[in-house]
Design brief:
This protein has 6 helices and 10 strands. It is of the alpha+beta class and about 290 residues long.
């Protein structure tokens, strides 16, 4: 019984939909190939109905969809009227082209297609039919033509610029790299010296707990300067290096200060010695880079 009622309701809505007809029409009588033409689709229906108009995914053949404009719904006591203007273009060559857009009525979760009368538009011919024989007229007047861009010259110019750039890099690139490296070394040394002087000042005031901090600071800087793993070596291992004799004594004394009791004056003297050695190592590295 329920299925029968649903079927009767559907048949009733279809029959009623056939009485309602949308009105579709072109707003111009003719169109050129590729030109945009407006097509208006209007539909009046009872206010208790739900209606859908075609969207951009609809097949507008033989036309192609460009855009659309919706207009506010006009409502009276019993009817609602919707109006949409579609802007279409065509690239077909038929002299007369037709279009009939549908409207969809939604009833009980299903949709019913409602069609009105098709409308047509005339295609304006851009090129008339040529006769079999044509009388040609000579014209020897000068006609200025825009020159095409000379891509071969562009490629040659870019190639020369690239070669000059490579040549400049080979000629001056090494010197530029040296200056950049020296600048970074100087900046790193200034930062190290400021930190070293600051911590050294605290030790001078009697804070012996900063002794290990200052030693680590020194090892970190020297490791970056000479690219050697000073932070991973003990003072004894550093002293065994071939060029570490100048600061091996100072390191041993500082180690005794860290792990035992040592006079403050002796600690300060050895850290001053490490500072002098660091300056020597820095200047030596600068000379190596300049002469390299």
């Amino acid at each position: 019984m329920r299925k029968l009622l649903l079927l009767l309701s559907l048949l009733s809505s279809v029959a009623y939909a056939q009485q309602l007809q949308p009105k579709g029409m072109f707003l111009a009588d003719s169109i050129r190939l590729g030109e945009v033409i407006p097509y208006q689709l209007a539909f009046s229906y009872p206010i208790d109905m739900e209606v859908l108009f075609p969207d951009s995914t609809h097949d507008f053949s033989p036309f192609e969809f460009t855009r659309k404009e919706f207009y506010p719904t006009n409502v009276d006591s019993t009817l609602a009227t919707d109006r949409v203007v579609y802007y279409l273009s065509t690239f077909e060559t038929d002299l007369v082209q037709h279009l009939n857009l549908p409207v969809y009525l939604l009833t009980n979760g299903d949709s019913t297609v409602v069609l009105g009368m098709a409308d047509s538009v005339n295609l304006i011919e851009m090129i008339p039919i040529m006769p079999d024989s044509v009388a040609l007229m000579e014209d020897v007047k000068y006609l200025k033509v825009n020159q095409a861009f000379n891509y071969p010259y562009l490629i040659i110019g870019l190639s020369i610029a690239f070669i000059l750039l490579i040549g400049s890099y080979l000629a001056f690139g090494k010197q530029v790299q040296k200056k950049i490296r020296l600048y970074r070394m100087k900046k790193a040394y200034i930062k190290f010296n400021e930190d070293y002087v600051s911590v050294f000042g605290e030790i001078r005031k009697g804070d012996k707990s900063k002794t290990e901090t200052l030693l680590i600071l020194w090892k970190n800087y020297l490791e970056k300067l000479e690219d050697r793993p000073y932070t991973k070596l003990t003072s004894k291992e550093i002293s065994n290096l071939s060029d570490a004799k100048s600061f091996s004594k100072a390191l041993k004394t500082i180690d005794r200060a860290i792990y035992g009791k040592l006079d403050s004056g002796e600690i300060l003297k050895n850290f001053e010695s490490l500072e002098d050695i660091t300056v020597e190592r820095y200047n030596k590295k600068v000379i190596e880079i300049k002469n390299g």
